[in-house]
């Protein structure tokens, strides 16, 4: 496996690029958060629903690890989502002591509408880019996705 070259991030041009990336991603993220469909859900609840949409069913413990929160916090989040009929808890197929969290159709529809709204907003912004900037954006998207997964 290739190990990343840690010395590259300490080069002045790369340090500036990392700083600019962090700042831009944070500002864009804040603006995207305001494009939500359902304002009654917390960012943590939306994040859990997004994780379930990407990864499929999971135990509360698995969700806690994926979301980088403590298990008691995830238990509370799952309970709130269950009370809103956005997830359901079902018996684990192999371990009777465990439960599996699954998204409901209502959650899937809400997430799809949220994605549509956010994509439309972002497309409107991106419509102000010239062709060279679009080409750069198309090339950068997979790299940003990789960073998000690391």
Question: In summary, what is this structure?
Answer:
With 150 residues, the chain is mainly alpha-helical.
- What structural class do the secondary elements suggest? mainly alpha
Distance between the termini: 14 Å
State Rg.
19 Å
Helices, by number, come to: 6
Quaternary structure:
single chain
Strand order of the largest sheet: 1-2
Number of strands: 2
Overall 3D geometry?
Answer: globular
Whole-number average pLDDT? 89
**How would you sum up the major sheet?**
2 strands, antiparallel
Please tell me about this protein's structure:
The structure is a single chain. This protein is mainly alpha-helical. The protein has helices spanning 12-33, 43-55, 60-67, 71-83, 105-126, 131-149, and strands at residues 87-91, 99-103. Strands 1-2 form a two-stranded antiparallel ribbon. A hairpin with a 7-residue loop joins strand 1 (87-91) and strand 2. Helix 3 (60-67) packs across helix 4 (71-83). The protein is globular, with a radius of gyration of 19 Å.
Chain-wise SSE layout:
Layout: H1 12-33, H2 43-55, H3 60-67, H4 71-83, E1 87-91, E2 99-103, H5 105-126, H6 131-149
Antiparallel strand pairs: 1-2
Helix pairs in contact: 3-4
List the keywords.
2 strands; 150 residues; two-stranded antiparallel ribbon; mainly alpha; globular
């Amino acid at each position: 496996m290739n190990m990343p070259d840690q010395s590259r991030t300490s080069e002045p041009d790369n340090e500036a690029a990392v700083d600019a990336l962090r700042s831009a991603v944070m500002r864009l993220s804040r603006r995207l958060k305001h494009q939500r469909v359902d304002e009654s859900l917390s960012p943590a609840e939306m994040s859990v629903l997004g994780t379930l949409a990407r990864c499929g069913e999971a135990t509360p413990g698995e969700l806690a690890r994926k979301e980088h929160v403590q298990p008691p916090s995830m238990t509370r989040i799952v309970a709130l989502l269950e009370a809103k009929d956005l997830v359901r808890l079902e018996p684990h197929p192999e371990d009777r002591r465990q439960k599996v969290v699954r998204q409901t159709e209502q959650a899937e529809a809400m997430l799809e509408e949220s994605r549509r709204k956010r994509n439309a907003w972002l497309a409107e912004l991106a419509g102000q880019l010239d062709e060279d900037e679009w080409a750069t954006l198309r090339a950068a998207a997979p790299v940003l996705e990789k960073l998000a997964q690391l």
